[in-house]
């Protein structure tokens, strides 16, 4: 590859330039079950752990998700917000385009809205891999009105749930669908996703062909349709184990199944709806509440740019929803806005779910290296 588009060295020429007797010119004989690499978890529930993957795992996700759902093509130009060290981008901006011979845009530095606008203007990508925080930042950036996104045909989102209102705002501005999905380091890549022409805002879509999943209760039995429970998934890309973490491996990898910490519900049409991570749920007035549900309701208010809901104890030692709010331009955080936001949530959700307290911020919420809101820090 070179500094300019279309300047590259063909594989055949590079191989011919090497001495045939040079050990570097020989390939190790490997098969589908040979170890290929470690993918580290994000550390959302503790220290990052290394998921041990075989060669077959990467090939499987490429054939099922990349070709079967996202639809990568040779004429695509792929631009990614996450860097290649993130397993999400390892697939979307390396392995998947490599499989079909597509073009990839790599750039140094942080993926700020300003940098992305410049990269889009220069390279005219057709595939944009992002996270919800990025899509929100692009829409709210000073350059939003001048952005020419007409080259895009597909946007991908993962890492955290994509708010329904954000999807609708993006679609109205660009006309381009965002395919929200869920994957994990344990499964290498995305195994539940919306698909082109079949997007249900707020949901994570359906199973990627080649994968199977159940939603189970504390006893391990499948729960009825519509009820929340823990997600377990299986398919041809499941990791062998966590390196040097036997107890955690035994808990997560059970036979063919990978047992996740994510709480989902599944509707009658086979679509999956994210409720939250088990350790993020709040018990309010004796009932489990998903912070994500409250955040989505708050984001539909014009005064809010970003929000994260966490649990805080009140004067009686009871846990109640507490909203950390980044205000939209021109909005002022005060008692009057707090009253308005409480009413806004009560109009949309069950009465006990409204935030009892608010914290106003002028700076963006803290993020981890994957672009997710650092919920642990805010807690």
Summary?
The chain is of the alpha/beta class. It has helices at 11-16, 55-70, 87-100, 113-123, 132-140, 164-174, 246-252, 291-299, 335-346, 375-378; strands at residues 35-40, 50-54, 77-80, 103-105, 127-130, 154-157, 178-183, 190-193, 206-207, 212-216, 229-234, 253-254, 257-266, 272-277, 282-284, 287-289, 304-313, 319-327, 357-361. It has two domains: 11-275, 3-Layer(aba) Sandwich (Rossmann fold), CATH 3.40.50; 282-378, GMP Synthetase, Chain A, domain 3.
Please supply descriptive tags for the structure shown above.
seven-stranded mixed β-sheet; alpha/beta; Rossmann fold; 10 helices; GMP Synthetase, Chain A, domain 3; 379 residues; 19 strands; 2 domains
Description:
The chain has 379 residues and is of the alpha/beta class. The chain has two domains: 11-275, Rossmann fold (3-Layer(aba) Sandwich); 282-378, ANL, C-terminal domain (GMP Synthetase, Chain A, domain 3, 2-Layer Sandwich). The chain has ten helices and 19 strands. The strands form five sheets. The chain has a seven-stranded mixed β-sheet, with helices on both faces. Strands 10, 11, 12, 13 and 14 form a five-stranded antiparallel β-sheet that branches. Helix 2 crosses helix 3 and helix 5 (132-140) packs across helix 6 (164-174). The radius of gyration is 22 Å and the shape is globular.
